[in-house]
Design goal:
This protein is of the alpha/beta class. Helix content is 29%, strand content 27%. Helix 3 runs antiparallel to helix 9 and helix 10 packs across helix 15. It holds the Pfam family Metallophos.
């Protein structure tokens, strides 16, 4: 005689990065899928980086727009991604998640540095019951130790935390799910090394698993990035033994205000076809309301310019010089380096709003200071003159621009010959009356992105690296725009062509 079975449907998203245009169709799809399976048989989860401060709806509302959408969409538990944990202060996160939230915020490896405990608005794990099935949820986030420390967090090594919590939850639950904002390699590692995990829902590295990975008895799923897809996992549990009988995962594509299958695999109670679900009207209305209120917030004037401040990707321009000078002023240093691609455009004469700064400089990148050998600075300066570096497209690591662009500098003067061979273009570089030499070390004000080996590889070789949080580089720029002397000095050239 066949044992009776209980069905469970798990809906999941990851790394939406405030792509609000994708949220109404996802909400509509989730509503249909939840109705088909029954609310008591459905669990809805987000795996982090739902928020991204590059979008005015998020920046202008300090994340409240995302929270309202998540509540309306019916999420029951979420985990913290690095875009939540590192671009919002602890105070802002408390305001965001501390009240009027209908979902659990899983902070399994994120502790308050003062108390050594999970923040008051989060939980270390969550046990939820669906149709008589007890499900243990663990949520872990990427292990950026130094950045979290500067914000007042004591982040724990996530794999060890997960292993401990699985040991605690396994005897008390029928199904153990890890919401992992750690990236695919770490998910594979946990599946191989930690017994007792039934399902890992992944994110952070933006990987799309159209078909789940299976490692031992663990299944790994992920739904890509930017709300282009969402994921569904259908589970059948033996009602008597309370063990999984079958588990099937698949993703569905979201596009043009409708949603479609991205996997042709047959599934029980599968979702409708591509054009069956319109956008969710209530979620659309929430987004419109927050867009209007956020635009009002971001209209505030932060500076007034008597003349335009141009920005260029491939040649020296005042706005890039101004940011470099601001970085050096903020963190100290002998010189400053920042890539011109941080700006999407320049600033016109007249009032400058907070929203305009967000438009031209959307990256949530932080200042830093490091000690660099002259040879590594010179190598980056040489590369800064090469088209393959200037035109290099970048993704991730906080960068929200288009291309790397050349280096903007402050405290340093560079003489170069654009007609000379690659890596022999710089004739000399000097600080005051002193030539920059290969074997001497210098204090360099720059940006955190370079320390990860992004853009100019030699700039990742710095020592005594110190990060400065919570400021973004647009905060540095905002202060410099209020300094008329700094603006005037930004028009002074730092790159000098030997042939001109």
């Amino acid at each position: 005689m066949t044992s009776p079975q209980v069905r469970l449907r798990i809906l999941h998203t990851n790394d939406l990065h405030s792509h609000f245009e994708q949220m109404p169709p996802i909400a509509s799809a989730f509503r249909e899928l939840r109705a088909a399976a029954g609310a008591e048989h459905t669990l809805t989860l987000d795996i982090g980086d739902h928020l991204d401060r590059m979008r005015p709806e998020t920046e202008g509302s300090c994340g409240s727009a995302n929270r309202a959408v998540m509540i309306e969409t019916g999420y029951e538990a979420v985990t913290i991604g690095n875009n939540e944990g590192l671009t919002f202060t602890p105070h802002e996160l408390e305001a965001l998640y501390g009240s009027d939230v209908s979902f659990k915020v899983l902070c399994s490896n994120l502790l308050d540095a003062e108390t050594g405990r999970v923040p008051s608005w989060g939980v270390p794990y969550h046990i939820v019951e669906k149709a008589g099935i007890r499900i243990g949820l663990i949520g872990v986030t990427a292990y950026f130790t130094e950045f979290y420390r500067l914000l007042g967090w004591a982040i724990q090594e996530p794999v060890a935390v997960t292993a401990q919590l699985v040991r605690e939850l396994r005897p008390r639950t029928d199904l153990v799910i890890v919401l992992s904002h750690l990236g695919l390699r770490n998910d594979e590692r946990m599946a191989a090394d930690i017994p007792g995990i039934d399902l890992i829902l992944g994110g952070h590295t933006h990987h799309l698993l159209e078909k789940p990975l299976r490692i031992g008895s663990t299944m790994i799923c992920a739904a890509g990035k930017y709300g282009q897809y969402y994921g569904v996992v259908d589970v059948r549990m033996d009602a008597l033994t309370r063990k999984p009988v079958a588990m099937e995962g698949y993703v569905r594509q979201v596009h043009n205000g409708a949603w479609a299958e991205a996997d042709t695999a047959d599934s029980a109670d599968a979702a409708k076809t591509a054009d069956a679900a319109p956008d969710d009207d209530r979620v659309s209305a929430i987004i419109r309301r927050y867009k209007a209120s956020s635009d009002q917030v971001l209209m505030r004037e932060v500076a007034y310019l008597q003349e335009p401040l141009p920005a260029e990707w491939y040649s020296e321009a005042p706005l890039g010089n101004l940011l470099a000078a601001g970085l050096r002023k903020r963190v100290g240093g002998d010189l400053a380096l920042v890539n011109a691609g941080q700006f999407l455009s320049g600033l016109a004469q007249g009032p400058v709003s907070a929203g305009r700064l967000l438009e031209i400089c959307p990256s949530p990148i932080n200042p830093c200071r490091m000690v660099l050998a002259g040879e590594h600075i010179l190598q980056a300066l040489e590369q800064s003159l090469l088209p393959e570096f200037m035109e290099k497209p970048l993704l991730g690591f906080g960068f929200r621009g288009k291309v790397l662009g050349m280096l903007n500098i402050d405290g340093l003067q560079v003489e170069y010959d654009s007609a000379a061979p690659a890596y022999s273009k710089i004739s000399r570089a000097w600080l005051g009356d002193e030539l920059l030499t290969a074997d001497k070390h210098y204090n360099v004000a720059t940006i955190d992105m370079f320390t990860f080996g992004v853009g100019y590889p030699s700039l990742s070789k710095g020592e005594q690296v110190q990060y400065f949080l919570p400021e973004f580089i647009r905060d540095i720029l905002r202060l410099e725009l209020q300094d008329t002397q700094a603006i005037e000095q930004s028009r002074s050239r730092r790159w000098h062509s030997a042939s001109s």
